[in-house]
Design a protein that fits this description.
7 helices, about 25% helix, about 30% strand, binds zinc ion, about 260 residues, alpha/beta, seven-stranded mixed β-sheet, single chain, Metallo-beta-lactamase, Chain A
């Protein structure tokens, strides 16, 4: 059964129980990592996904809490003998910085390093990111401090539509991206001056987009009380709401 595993649910400051926000999609034929922080190699081992199955990595934006573990992922995969190409997708703003970061490690001198293919996505709504046997993924720019994309994922086997906001203020692009989705995973960072949304606003977006279910992610965890988040989102959205937690597994099928 296609599934989404939440590998991290914290906003920019992680704690002992919550890694920074990132997640992995798994279908029958592929595994796609969405953002890359914390200890992805350890996490994948823990949930039983081999590094060799990892085919694609989508980076939503170039902030440390979303991309900082990419060099370590690449180095580990190389040391474990990977030979297959890894495809990395993101906006030009993100990928050119990622290439600079890898250049700082002199990765061109790592002997026998496997191919990495960077796919620079145009910054426009509804752009095709990738399509394989399991998933069809599109992206739209959302509104954050730096160029950032949200994702809309069609699960081919089940027809399930999953949308992930990444980091954004409430915006019409987000509503259009999420329109009619089975599940919207939306950030709920809250009391930040700019660039983020609260749980109340995540609920408003979910209601406006007419999604079936809302999962809150990217919330404050450091010495923070999280009990108010779901009720706050429920004050503006009448459908089911849940709080994403690390290692939560979500079946990507209708009626799950
Ligand atoms: Zn973030």
């Amino acid at each position: 059964m296609p599934r989404l595993v939440i590998l991290g649910s914290a906003s920019a400051v992680a704690d002992a129980n919550h890694e920074n926000t990132h997640m992995i999609l798994q279908g029958a034929h592929s595994a796609i990592l969405i953002d890359c922080t914390g200890r992805p190699v350890v996490d994948l081992q823990r949930i039983g996904i081999g590094l060799d199955i990892l085919s694609d990595l989508i980076l939503t934006h170039f902030h440390p809490d979303h991309v900082a573990a990419v060099p370590n992922l690449l180095m580990s995969a190389w040391l474990l003998g990977r030979s297959a190409t890894l495809r990395i997708y993101g906006l030009h703003h993100c990928l050119e910085r990622m290439e600079d970061m890898m250049a700082a490690y002199h990765w061109e001198e790592w002997p026998g390093f496997f191919p990495v293919a960077f796919h620079h996505l145009p910054e426009r709504e509804g752009v095709a990111v990738l399509e394989n046997e399991d998933f069809q993924i599109k992206a739209s720019p959302v509104r954050h401090y730096v160029p950032t994309i949200g994702l809309r994922i069609l699960v081919k086997e089940t027809g399930f539509v999953l949308v992930y906001s990444s980091d954004t203020v409430p915006c019409p692009e987000m509503v259009r991206l999420a329109y009619g989705a089975d599940l919207l995973i939306h950030e709920a960072t809250g009391d930040e001056p700019l660039g983020h949304a609260s749980a109340v606003q995540a609920g408003e977006i979910a209601a406006e987009a007419g999604v079936k279910r809302l999962g809150l992610i990217h919330y404050h965890v450091w010495n923070a009380n999280t009990e108010h988040l779901v009720p706050q989102a429920q004050s503006t959205f009448s459908g089911p709401v849940f709080l994403c937690e690390d290692f939560m597994q979500i079946e990507l099928t209708q009626g799950a």
